[in-house]
Design brief:
Blueprint lengths: L3 H5 L19 H7 L4 H9 L1 H4 L2 H25 L4 H25 L7 H11 L2
Helix pairs in contact: 2-5, 2-6, 3-5, 5-6, 5-7
Length: about 130
């Protein structure tokens, strides 16, 4: 689920000071963690000037959006499958909750924690 760079807390794109503060006074670790709260802060961080240029915050914002969309799609698929899908919904929901909590904590610790497919996409978007 994560690579060597996420264990060390380093940026795979280049050096980024961990815990650096933006102009608004919000540290990049806090902003990256807040991006996971819902899709709305993630989109706001992608649009606001001091945060939109920070690759660490952009990475976690894109990963948050991807995780939220994946959870929504999986939930919709499961509820459309009678009985078996309905039984799986709470267990899959708990799994998504566990992944979400872990990504929030990793972002707050300043780590580039990449989810398998979503993280690769998010990393590609963060460098643009």
């Amino acid at each position: 689920m994560d690579d060597n760079s996420s264990e060390t807390g380093t940026n795979p794109i280049g050096p980024t000071p961990v815990g650096a503060q933006g102009q608004a006074g919000l540290s990049e670790n806090a902003a990256a963690a807040i991006a996971y709260v819902t899709i709305i802060p993630a989109i706001i961080f992608l649009v606001l000037e001091p945060y939109s240029k920070n690759s660490f915050i952009r990475f976690h914002s894109f990963q948050s959006i991807g995780l939220g969309l994946l959870a929504f799609v999986v939930h919709m698929i499961l509820i459309s499958i009678p009985i078996f899908g309905w039984i799986l919904v709470p267990f899959v929901g708990l799994a998504f909750l566990a992944v979400w909590v872990d990504t929030v904590l990793q972002a707050y610790k300043g780590r580039w924690f990449k989810l398998p497919v979503i993280g690769t996409f998010a990393e590609a978007q963060a460098v643009k």
